[in-house]
Design goal:
Elements (H helix, E strand, L loop, with lengths): L13 H11 L6 H5 L7 H13 L2 H11 L6 E2 L1 H9 L13 H14 L4 H9 L70 H9 L5 H9 L3 H4 L10 H19 L8 H15 L4 E2 L1
Antiparallel strand pairs: 1-2
Helix pairs in contact: 6-7, 6-11, 7-9, 7-12, 8-9, 9-11
The chain binds fe (ii) ion (FE2) (2 copies).
One fe (ii) ion (FE2) binds next to loops.
Length: 285
């Protein structure tokens, strides 16, 4: 791991976090049940959140934004990024676990089956490419996990809130008010969320996708807001309207998993056209 202390990777694969989120929001499950996740029943996931909540501070987020958001890691096509991401092999069970590209295709194909516009299908196809952060050496807790604003009080709608006790921002009074360092209703564009794959892929793709797709990519892990309605004090009216798109996107991300493996070979011509319709041959990463 570059520059930072070596941290144990508590999840067997990034998918384990995605699976946990899907299990949390099973249709019919109440919000009360959501709050009662026991660390004992989910030790890897709990350890993951312990690290995430302890280390995602405002300073950390600002440092990662300064490191990555100038997009100076070189040029890559969408396809090169997808193939690169696919080299992230899941250590748990290589036979049943879907590769990263398969998750992207299952998401985008479910969107396509429902007859949504082409840009929406494309958003599904690229939404997790920011997970290449893992291949740059970032620990899991800085790549995946539900996102939340830093620099203001943590919502009690965030899963495993007790792990914030170890976060040094808890000692900074200014960061512990509902609005923290932000103006009320300032708009989410001015708010720093915990660092991860959403913000990164949003920056890589934002010049090429319509705004609803940008919201889908940028906020798809912001469960406290799009699932639980938290942080409305920082959202403006435009965010609230646009969050309808983040909510529309979410079920495709969570519930499109199936045992049927999509065939990249068969689907490739469609996605080659779709990617070329919106993106240049190479993007800055
Ligand atoms: Fe994601
Ligand atoms: Fe996803």
């Amino acid at each position: 791991m570059r520059g930072t202390e070596e941290v144990a990777q508590p999840l067997q694969s990034l998918e384990e976090w995605d699976d946990f989120v899907a299990s949390r929001y099973q249709p019919g499950k109440s919000q009360e049940e959501f709050r009662h996740y026991s660390a004992e029943a989910n030790p890897g996931v709990a350890e993951f959140y312990r690290q995430n909540h302890a280390h995602q501070t405002l300073d950390f987020v600002l440092a990662k934004r300064a490191e990555y958001l100038p997009l100076k890691r070189g040029k890559k096509s969408i396809w090169e990024a997808a193939e690169y991401l696919n080299t992230l092999v899941d250590s748990s069970d290589p036979d049943t676990d879907l590769s990263q590209i398969e998750h992207l295709l299952q998401t985008s194909e479910a969107i396509r089956r429902d007859g949504h516009p082409r840009w929406f299908v494309l958003a599904g196809f690229v939404h997790d490419l920011g997970k290449v952060l893992c291949l740059y050496g970032e620990p899991q807790w800085a790549v995946v996990g539900d996102t939340f604003p830093v620099g203001c009080a943590w919502s009690d709608q965030i899963v495993f809130p007790e792990y914030f006790d170890a976060n040094p921002d808890g000692q900074v009074a200014e960061y512990q008010t509902p609005n923290g360092i932000y103006e009320p209703r300032c708009g989410l564009d001015k708010v720093y969320l915990s660092w991860g794959h959403d913000e990164y892929i949003y920056h890589v793709t934002r010049n090429y996708l319509p705004e609803p797709a940008q919201y889908m990519l940028r906020y798809h892990s912001f469960y406290p807001a799009h699932k639980h309605g938290a942080y409305r004090n920082l959202m403006n009216e435009h965010d609230e309207r646009m969050f309808e798109w983040a909510r529309k996107f979410n079920p495709y991300d969570l519930y499109s998993k199936s045992a049927e493996r999509p065939s990249l070979k068969e689907l490739r011509p469609y996605y080659e056209d779709l990617v070329a319709e919106y993106f240049p041959a190479q993007l800055d990463w």
